[in-house]
Each structure stands twice: as C-alpha cells, then as structure tokens.
Amino acid sequence: MDDAAVISSWSGGKDSCLACYKAMQKGYQVKYLLNFISREYKRCCFHGIEGKLLKLQAELIGIPLVQREVTADMQKYEEEFKQAVTELKTQGIRKMVFGDIYLLDHINWVERVCKELDIDPIEPLWNISPVAIIEEFVNLGFKAIIVSCQADKFDKDFVGKEVDKDLINELKSRNICPCGENGEFHTFVIDGPIFKRRIKIVESEPVLKQGFWKYWFLDIKKYN
Prior knowledge:
9 strands; putative n-type atp pyrophosphatase, domain 2; 6 helices; 5-stranded parallel sheet; single chain
C-alpha cells in the first residue's frame, strides 16, 4: 500500500480542482479522479456538465477519470459512492481528497462514510476563508467559468462568466459566498497550472431548469 497514493473527489469545478492541486503540492500522488454523473441526464450533478466534457478535462490534466452514474436518491447515492471507492481500494489506495470548505453537514458525511470505508479523508480547503480560497485559485492561474447558478440570485448573463477578480468583487459586494459553498453557483475549470492546454468553449447558451431550485445552466454545445 502506497501512503502517498490518493483518489480525488472530482466535480470539474474550482473547489475540487484546487483541493486536488494542493494535495499534489503536498506530495500526494493522485491516481484517479472520481466523478459522479446523473444516471438520467449523463451530466455532473448540480454542475450540469456532460460526462464526456469531464473526460476531456481529466485527459488534459493527465489523471485517469473514474466516472460512475448515480441516482438522485441520497441513500442510493451513498451506496453507489461506497461501491466506487471500494473498487478503487483494491489497488491499495486508502486516502481520498475532498474540496469541502465550511459546511458541517458535508464534512460530517465525508468523515462518517470514509470511516465506514476505512479511508482517510484529506481536506485541503477546510476552514480556510472562502475569499482566500477563490483568490488563491485565480492567483495560481486557474481559469474557470460559471456553469450554473440559482435563478433567484442571478440572471442568465451570470452563467458563462469567467471567475476573476471582478467577479469576486461582485460576489463580495452582494454578500454572496465567493466560493458558492451554499449552492449559489457552480463552476467548470478550463485551464490552469496542471492543464496541458485550455479547453475552448465554442458555442453555449443559458438554459433555465426548474427542480427543487430554479437554476440557470450553461448548455455547452461545442468545445475543443
């Protein structure tokens, strides 16, 4: 068993990307990115990114992506999460990276499930100021765009925006968590210090979808 070998929980967004990067900087060897997509829509849950676009992202980072389909039911999701991690444990991996920041419900779930799986959770972003996290992300040279947002807080022009200092200042002025930790918005990373090249979004449009929350999603139609 290699103590430096880890799995990194992966959504394709800024927090999971920065957590993965910081773990790598500390000497961990990220063997796999573990991503879950909706069984119904074949897209990343909440972010709305197509599974194949996430695969391109992983290829450009150079880390294999393990992608599993999940249901919306939380109990079933937990079972499917545990099954996926258990499969990867057969390769001697006993640590997993997560991008939690300050939500206790999230970290409590992670700690409980990891204990049941005999996996050590690594939380590089935990208890760091959201402003410090997003500023570090930008200052390191990572590039991300907004791919979904709550429609009661943002209009359709918000999706597609790049995460930069102007956007950070806008969020701060509106008293919205600059990391969107409460689900206000989600991002997709298109470039950065661990990417071979930038992902170019060629064609996209905002789409309004009504569920438990009303969200604007960026429907990415063409990219390379």
